[in-house]
């Protein structure tokens, strides 16, 4: 594996992790506005292969923010916002750890 390929994998990983974090921040800030748009792209009970594929791709790229918001929906507004903010901080720390672990594993294996 060349250095350029490793840089590409690291870039794609950081892109993926940052999309998850940014969408969680949008869910935190805008709430129902973003979730309504998200829910139009996701099928509740997908029946066809196209619906399953579209739902999987949408959940894979944007899924953690709406998932956590749905889990925190049973709490009051202020508690829900506090828990979302706390989960965003945890998600940022976890993303940094995952990024550096995968980066060092790639370097150890291929360089």
What's this entry about, in short?
The protein has 111 residues and is mainly α.
Mean pLDDT: 91
Largest sheet: none
Give the oligomeric state: single chain
Give Rg in angstroms.
17 Å
Distance between the termini: 8 Å
Distinct helical segment count: 5
List the secondary-structure elements in sequence, H or E: HHHHH
- Give the overall shape: flat
Class by SSE composition? mainly alpha
Poorly predicted parts: none
Q: How many strand segments?
A: 0
The proportion of strand residues reads under 5%
- Integer tally of domains: 1
Helix share of residues? over 70%
Keywords: Membrane, Transmembrane, Transmembrane helix
Transmembrane segments: 12-33, 53-70, 82-102
Which key terms come to mind for this protein?
membrane, mainly alpha, transmembrane, 111 residues, transmembrane helix
Give a verbal description of the structure.
The chain crosses the membrane at residues 12-33, 53-70, 82-102. Keywords: Membrane, Transmembrane, Transmembrane helix. The chain is mostly helical and 111 residues long. Helices cover 84% and strands 0% of the residues.
What's the SSE blueprint?
Blueprint: H1 3-30, H2 32-40, H3 49-62, H4 64-71, H5 77-110
Helix pairs in contact: 1-4, 1-5
Transmembrane segments: 12-33, 53-70, 82-102
Keywords: Membrane, Transmembrane, Transmembrane helix
């Amino acid at each position: 594996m060349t250095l350029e390929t490793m840089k590409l994998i690291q870039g794609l990983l950081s892109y993926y992790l940052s999309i998850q974090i940014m969408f969680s921040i949008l869910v935190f800030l805008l709430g129902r506005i973003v979730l309504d748009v998200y829910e139009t792209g996701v099928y509740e009970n997908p029946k066809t292969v196209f619906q399953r594929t579209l739902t999987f791709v949408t959940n894979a790229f944007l899924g953690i923010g709406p998932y956590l918001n749905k889990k925190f929906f049973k709490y009051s507004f202020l508690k829900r916002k506090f828990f979302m903010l706390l989960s965003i901080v945890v998600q940022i720390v976890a993303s940094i750890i995952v990024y550096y672990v995968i980066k060092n594993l790639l370097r150890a294996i291929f360089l």
